[in-house]
Amino acid sequence: MQRTVILVFMLIGLAAAGFIGWRYLNSGDRVDAGIWADPNDVALVARGAEIYREQCAACHGARLEGQPDWRRRRPDGRLPAPPHDASGHTWHHADQQLFNVIKQGTAAFAAAGYKTDMGAYKDTLTDRDIWAVLAYIKTKWPPQVRKRQAAITARSKKQAQ
Hints:
Layout: H1 2-25, H2 33-36, H3 42-55, H4 57-60, H5 95-104, H6 127-139, H7 143-160
Helix pairs in contact: 3-6, 5-6
């Protein structure tokens, strides 16, 4: 009888540990761009496309084309939204940097007093949602641009270690 009770508690403990591990791996809380911004993950990209349409397209364009004259400051001192396609500079940044800018907003990383329309999405999107948007954006880049951006991300990860 006592062995049975111990065995039942062990099985319950193992099941609980497995469930907690599964929830952790699927929560999106891990900030590992190598896993979460995968443009080959069809479900993730589909989710990213939907979120992009809802949250990003109004400024960055339905085709990721950005706003006209995105390199020229407007009279209010702010820059228009840049494109996220291959013509822009998004792919020049590591995944983690892109994630951080979306989550915390551009102003968190700019010089004091920098004016921007790009706010923080930390209260709007989950980490997994942000990675999904980045995965979707990557699908719009030609293979050579994806390869170069992946190298930038790899170097950034190596430097962070």
